[in-house]
Amino acid sequence: MSQGSEYIALERLETTYKTCHYAANLCVHATSESQKPIVVLFPHGEHLRELLVANVNLPAPDTVLHKPYEDQSVKEFYLRDLQAIAKKNGFRAIEVVQGVVLSPEEWTAESGLVTATQKVQRKAVEKKYLEEIKVRISFVVATVVHYLGELTGIRILRVGLL
């Protein structure tokens, strides 16, 4: 992906972000219009279960185990973990993930989200999760606008979806 005059190698980002202990698989989504990438991620079930049991700041595993992708605190945990990976690996600002979409469905060749050799089918993942990606980008934009409003004292009345 090229943003302005800067190029982002999505495959390199994916390879590095896949070192996330709590991710079974992921796909980095970015466009020339987006400021930073979004990651669509299928959680690693056993590692997520261990995390939920061990972390008092996250919901108990019996409350979200079957639907962790719907819990905002779980999404925020994944975002912070991926951002820490980016920092550790010296990513440029435009390579640091700005949002996470958690996938409830395992990525298999039968679902079309990966090939038989487990290579991520980027276009299929992006197509399947496009609405969630748009919502995540809108959430990030609204958060930034809110934060800027807090800093400047300007009240923003409406932020539209991208």
- Along the chain, the helix and strand elements come as EEHEEHHHEHH
User: Helical content, roughly?
Assistant: 40-55%
The total tally of domains equals 1
Query: How much beta, percentage-wise?
Result: 5-15%
- So what's the CATH class? Alpha Beta
Q: What is the overall pLDDT average?
A: 81
Which outline best applies? globular
Largest sheet: 3 strands, mixed
Return the structural class. alpha+beta
Characterize the structure shown:
This protein is of the alpha+beta class. It has one domain (2-128): 2-Layer Sandwich (GMP Synthetase, Chain A, domain 3), CATH 3.30.300.30. The protein is 43% helix and 13% strand. The chain is built from 6 helices and 5 strands; from the N terminus they run E-E-H-E-E-H-H-H-E-H-H. Strands 3-4-5 form a 3-stranded mixed beta sheet, sandwiched between helices. The longest helix has 23 residues, at 130-152. It is globular and about 40 Å long.
Secondary-structure blueprint of this entry?
Layout: E1 2-3, E2 6-7, H1 10-17, E3 23-29, E4 38-43, H2 45-54, H3 61-64, H4 72-88, E5 99-102, H5 122-128, H6 130-152
Parallel strand pairs: 4-5
Antiparallel strand pairs: 1-2, 3-4
Write out key terms for the chains shown:
3-stranded mixed sheet; 6 helices; two-stranded antiparallel ribbon; 5 strands; GMP Synthetase, Chain A, domain 3
Structure summarized in a few sentences:
The protein starts with a strand and ends in a 10-residue tail after the last helix. 43% of the residues lie in helices and 13% in strands.
